[in-house]
Amino acid sequence: KSFLNHTAYLSCYFPNSQKTDINDLRVFWQKDTREVVYEVYHGQEKHDNLSPKYINRTKMDMDKWTLQLLNAGVVDEGQYKCIIQHRDKGSPKVIHTSECLLYIIANYSQPEIEQLHTGELKPNEPLNLSCSSSGGYPKPKQMTWLISHKNTTDGPMGHMEVSQDAITKLYSVTSKLNITVPTNTLTNISCLLHLGEQLGSLVSMPLGE
């Protein structure tokens, strides 16, 4: 996993137990088996076969056999394959391959609740709320509402809408909720954005009634 616009580190996991000289090797990286991301041949970087979008965006740490992909974007997500060949009496022979999957993460903004109605709210009148968060990746799992009064807490789902920016590929999410708040009861309303198991959740500031 790599954060958006940061450097992604992709490892070849090559033990090099034979302590082979880099000048006797050809190392290249492919993405989704179509694009050449990086190539080093006889110790020299080669750019002839590179996909244009990877030019000047890669560095190889030969001690750790790790490729650095600079300024990683959503379009860089995918499967990368590292192939190492040894120049052995003429024709090169593949001595190592490994694959890794790159996932991009972009932080969502803290969800914000907005009241959609205008004018003064009358007792037992429906409350129209919207909760929004933007600029994140990957697509969020769901957005729920937390409504607590006295000793009870409800978790209605609301109506969630997700949109994706055509250029940046980042997501924005909005959930709308229509509820009637009981009178003479202290009610707290928050909304919760679920990003998935490993990424956790984001919660809004509560809307106090």
What does this molecule look like?
- This protein folds into two domains: 2-105, Immunoglobulins (Immunoglobulin-like, Sandwich), CATH 2.60.40.10; 112-203, Sandwich (Immunoglobulin-like), CATH 2.60.40.10.
- Helices cover 0% and strands 52% of the residues.
- The chain has no helices and 19 strands.
- The protein has strands at residues 2-3, 8-11, 25-31, 35-41, 44-45, 58-61, 66-69, 78-87, 92-102, 104-105, 112-115, 126-136, 142-149, 152-154, 159-164, 171-180, 187-194, 201-203, 207-208.
- It is a single-pass type I membrane protein.
- Keywords: Cell membrane, Disulfide bond, Glycoprotein, Immunoglobulin domain, Membrane, Receptor, Signal, Transmembrane, Transmembrane helix.
The CATH topology of the largest domain is given as: Immunoglobulin-like
CATH architecture of the largest domain: Sandwich
Biggest sheet, in brief?
5 strands, antiparallel
Considering DSSP H and I runs of 4 or more, what fraction of the residues is helical? under 10%
- Which stretches are low in confidence, meaning pLDDT under 50 for 5 or more residues running? none
Q: How many H/I helices?
A: 0
Strand residue content:
over 45%
Overall structural domain count: 2
Shape: elongated
Distance between the termini: 40 Å
The count of β-strands is 19
State the order of secondary-structure elements, H for helix, E for strand.
Answer: EEEEEEEEEEEEEEEEEEE
The CATH class name of the largest domain reads Mainly Beta
